[in-house]
């Protein structure tokens, strides 16, 4: 359900952008700062038993026309191992944790423009992992280094004051410490990476 909603958001936003770009001239200047987030926050509106309670805020600085650095603050909740690939096991009841994980993270992001709006980006997020059992009682805290490797396209809107960025990513968590054994038993069945995660970021430049 979450993936379907995000894909629909991407198609909708791309359609609006195509229509707008036919009438809006390109602005060759660039603004150095931006604040933004991701359309993934719309997942909070989906009526599910285990809502992600997702929030994200980005603040970025464009060093050169091709180089951008940013800070990304993020929190969300998940109840399945992150390494489960798309397929029959994805969010299957048998793979669900005996509880859930609440993640609080801050990431440093480097974004490099390769050709026109096409870019590559690396996100390195340090996150506190708070583990909660099925009885809604906190079990313990852990630490996770969460890496994201992203390819996307930057689409400016409204004289380069706004933008959207559809993308695809690989995520990886090489460090994941102090995981409760009941959670770790499920995680051992899966890879410590996830492929082809769609993304759709947006922001305001100033």
Brief rundown of the structure:
13% of the residues lie in helices and 53% in strands.
Largest sheet: 8 strands, antiparallel, barrel
Largest sheet strand order? 1-2-3-4-5-6-8-9
The Cα radius of gyration reads 18 Å
Q: Give the low-pLDDT segments.
A: 1-28
Mean pLDDT: 89
Euclidean distance between termini CA atoms: 34 Å
Strand content: over 45%
What string gives the helices and strands in order? HEEEEEEEEHE
- The overall strand count is 9
In the CATH scheme, what's the topology name? Porin
Provide the number of structural domains: 1
The helix/strand class is: mainly beta
- Quickly count the helices: 2
Using the coordinates above, name the CATH class: Mainly Beta
CATH architecture: Beta Barrel
The residue fraction in helices comes out at: 10-25%
- Taken from the alpha-carbon principal axes, the silhouette is elongated
Protein described:
The protein is mainly β. The chain has one domain: Porin (Beta Barrel). Helices cover 13% and strands 53% of the residues. It has an eight-stranded antiparallel barrel with strand order 1-2-3-4-5-6-8-9. A hairpin with a 2-residue loop joins strand 4 and strand 5 (118-133). This is DUF3575 domain-containing protein. Residues 1-19 form the signal peptide. It comes from Persicitalea jodogahamensis.
